[in-house]
Design a protein that fits this description.
- The protein is α+β, with helices and mostly antiparallel strands and 622 residues long.
- The protein has 14 helices and 34 strands.
Length: 622
């Protein structure tokens, strides 16, 4: 079980699920059930009590509190359940904590920042989730170093280990202090740079997380020229998977588990840009030897390598070239089409990358999960979002006059208001409105109260002003998502359900057909659509994506001829389907993780394409 709020938690959970489905655990683990507690210790206690009552053999916990869970963890131990924590830890002696030296991480990074600042100057601190062992240990150790080294701390703010809140913290600091000379942060490096850019400030020494984009920022020549110095460190998300391996081995073979298993943490300096394992190496080697007879050490190393391949924590490896390409995460545009493109009478089925097509980088704003391109015809402006970075962007057709707004939670999609001065936005916390003039965000309703495993996702507006959007299972494993329609008078109705990951809503030019997909179904669906009532009927398969070997389908749009365009995430391809569902053409893109498409520009002949950097590992595909 875990708390919700950032992509690290989703990735850690997915690695646990992947490990449970792979040899040698797949024959030993019958069921993995995930409980999400938010950041409430009492809710986590109640959930652990439920698990104890259901007689689970192993309970893996990311503990919200160091001490508050001790009583219920002791209950689990007394019931014969193996109680494991990962990353953060608890003080109950019967628990087994898979972690690393959090205090050393805080001390080492604070020393690095003090070195970069020459033992003088003013800093701000952006911490993690308040009350957790990891946050407390890192922050306390860092503060001790700053006091000893003569570094003045102007203020602290909880960034919750997420880009959006960390960026908000930095913006607040910049509004309050004009003498900030360094930043010690547990996460949010890219968002901190964005906040500095918004205020026209030069960069400064910054301690940041081990997220791959931050590492790329550290070696970006333009950023270095602006004064960026720093280090990168962080928690390996495979700690939960390692805890599962240890617990299963203990149950199967009677192996004695230590109270604390230190597996080390990743640490990069700007000069090296390669990992340097600090402490925990000996404990990690013991862990691998312990499991060697069952092959668990080899599997653990494969899990670490899988993290390298997905560009999140580089471990002992180096940054791969495809990570350097995809994590720059540009918004891409294809413009304009000529007779070899998508104009009438020029159909070329299965065409891959016409030589006459221009594919340019429109913007390089480094979104974690770029999504939802939206063209405003009246204002002649392009909007798009960074779902996990919790940001909304707006620019001209040429990528100029860029503006951005930060939202308080992961954002799935948005719908502009009629006056263009605001939008309805769907966040992981529910439906809200935003005023672009003031930045004010007002909650409206939560369509899924109590469904902590879900978040709201892709959506678009029909010609009558209904906002049709879906929800998704955050871990992308269970069919808990729904398809909703929100009317202009705020009436919400459910159109469909039993969905893992809602994506790609769009309509035919005559409004009679609604297209939609569950990214992991292998199909794009078509429905009969009643434009007067907003109702759907007769769901059917429109296109068999798996049969074409295109992978997971994501965002969609429809062109003037009624052809459906879809972005195929992880494959780096765009596909165009004829109105009868046959594949018309495939276009190879210069980035692998394309996410959504939308036509725009003065003549609506430019196809804007978003892409992403570091999504949580999709457990369904593994």
């Amino acid at each position: 079980m875990r708390y919700s709020g950032n992509d690290w938690q989703g990735e850690a959970t997915n690695l646990i699920k992947v490990a449970a489905k792979k040899a040698p655990l797949k024959d030993k683990v019958d069921e993995v059930k995930v409980f999400v507690a938010g950041t409430e210790a009492q809710k986590q206690i109640s959930q652990i009590q439920q698990m104890i009552a259901q007689r689970f053999d192993i309970i893996l916990i990311y503990p919200i509190s160091t001490t508050a869970l001790n009583g219920v963890i002791k209950q689990g131990c007394d019931a014969g359940i193996t109680m494991m924590t990962y990353d953060s830890q608890v003080t109950e002696p019967c628990a087994h904590n898979v972690t690393f030296d959090q205090a050393d991480a805080g001390k080492t990074t604070a020393e690095a920042l003090a070195d970069l600042m020459g033992d003088k100057g003013n800093i701000v601190m952006i911490t993690g989730v308040a009350g957790t062992y990891a946050d407390e240990q890192r922050t306390k150790a860092a503060e001790a170093v700053f006091k000893e080294r003569g570094i003045k701390v102007l203020g602290k703010c909880a960034g919750d280990w997420a880009q959006g809140p960390s960026g908000q913290c930095m913006s607040q600091f910049l509004a309050s202090f004009d003498n900030i000379e360094g930043v010690w942060a547990q996460a949010g490096g890219p968002a901190i740079l964005e906040a500095l850019d918004a205020k026209g400030k030069d960069y400064m020494p910054i301690v940041g997380e081990s997220e791959n984009q931050w590492r790329l920022d550290l070696i970006n020549p333009k950023y270095v020229a602006k004064g960026l110095k720093g280090v990168s460190y962080g928690s390996p998300p495979y700690q939960g998977a390692a805890a599962l391996h240890l617990a299963v081995d203990s149950l199967a073979n009677g192996t004695k588990l230590e109270s604390t298993i230190d597996i080390g943490y990743d640490y990069f300096t700007q000069d090296e840009i390669k990992p340097r394992r600090r402490h925990g190496r000996r404990a990690r080697c013991r862990l691998q030897r312990l499991h060697e007879r069952q092959g668990l050490g080899r599997l653990l190393r494969r899990l670490v390598q899988r993290e390298v391949d997905h560009g999140h924590h580089a471990g002992r490896g180096h940054l791969r070239q495809d990570c350097l390409l995809t994590t720059s995460c540009p918004t891409v545009r294809c413009a304009p089409w000529d007779t070899a493109g998508v104009r009438p009478g020029a159909r070329r089925p299965h065409e891959h990358g016409s030589s006459s097509m221009n594919i340019d980088i429109l913007l390089d704003v480094k979104p974690l999960l770029g999504e939802g391109p939206l063209w405003d015809v009246e204002q002649q402006r392009l909007y798009f979002i960074d779902s996990l970075g919790m940001r909304i962007f707006r620019c001209t057709a040429q990528g100029t006059e860029l503006r951005s707004w930060t939202v308080p939670a992961p954002i799935g999609s948005m719908a502009l208001t009629s006056d263009g001065e605001g939008a309805v936005i769907v966040l992981s916390t529910g439906i809200h409105t935003i005023d672009f003039r003031t930045g004010d965000i007002v909650p409206v309703m939560d369509p899924e109260p109590g469904l902590d495993e879900n978040r709201l996702n892709d959506g678009k507006v029909d010609r009558r002003g209904r906002f049709v959007f879906g929800s998704m299972n955050t871990a992308e494993t269970d069919a808990t998502g729904r398809l909703y329609s929100l009317s202009p008078d705020w009436q919400l109705s459910v159109l469909d359900q039993g969905i893992i990951c809602s994506n790609g809503p769009c309509w035919s030019p005559d409004d009679q057909t609604f297209y939609f997909c569950d990214s992991w179904s292998g199909e794009i669906w078509a429905y009969d659509y009643d434009i007067e009532t907003g109702g759907v009927a007769n769901r059917r398969r429109f296109a068999a994506v798996e049969a074409e070997g295109l992978g997971a389908h994501d965002g969609s749009t429809v062109d003037a001829e009624g052809f459906v365009w879809n972005a195929f995430v992880y494959e780096g391809k765009l596909a165009r389907f004829a109105p009868d569902g046959t594949l018309d053409r495939v276009i190879d893109m210069p980035v692998k993780k394309v996410t959504s498409v939308m036509f725009g520009g003065p003549d609506l002949d430019v196809l804007y394409v978003t892409s992403m950097a570091e999504p949580p590992l999709p457990a369904v595909s593994g």
